[in-house]
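tool=predict chain=A
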Amino acid sequence: MIRTTETSRNKFYQLISQYVPGNAVHYCYDLWMGCPFHFKIARRRQTKLGDYRYDPNGKEHSITINYNLNTYNFLITYLHEYAHLLATEKYGRKINPHGKEWQTEFRNVMFPMLSPLIFPDNLLKVLAKHMKRPKASTQSDPMLVKALRNYDSNPTDVLLLDDIQTGEIFAFKGNRFKKLESRRTRVLCHHILSGRKYLIPRIARIEKDV
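tool=predict ok
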């Protein structure tokens, strides 16, 4: 169990204030006070935006979130990971990580934040729709990814596979592909060198072929 001190409380408040919208700071702080956890700002990770872990020996929770997220994406990720903490506390560690228990807790902690005082209207509409049946990752929701991208520091620097036209050539992870057919969450692509076909997420970050 983590014991809080005035120093740790002040440190957390100052830290979270740097990363979430101003009107959400007190709410995020209150959640932390309700069930304190180790909190760390992490380097940029390609495969995840945040992470939750539980140490059964010390009975301590830990949450890490990537430093490079815009304030809205950071808040969503923070609440996503905190919902894991709540689900673990209430239902134990053997539940499906993104099953109905986690979905319920995520909706519960997100609901007070679904307000124009927190999110811009255009983002709020997409987020509210996402929260009806939240996915394991915001990265699995192309509409939400695109809406959040508008608030990145350099949104035009990020090109998604979904942004280019069918038939265009692009580079992804050092390989050249041709975009063939868009499906619900992935795109069928032709690998130029081998001739094989692969399914690549619609929201994969790519580079224009030169």
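The radius of gyration is 19 Å. Residues 6-152 form one domain.
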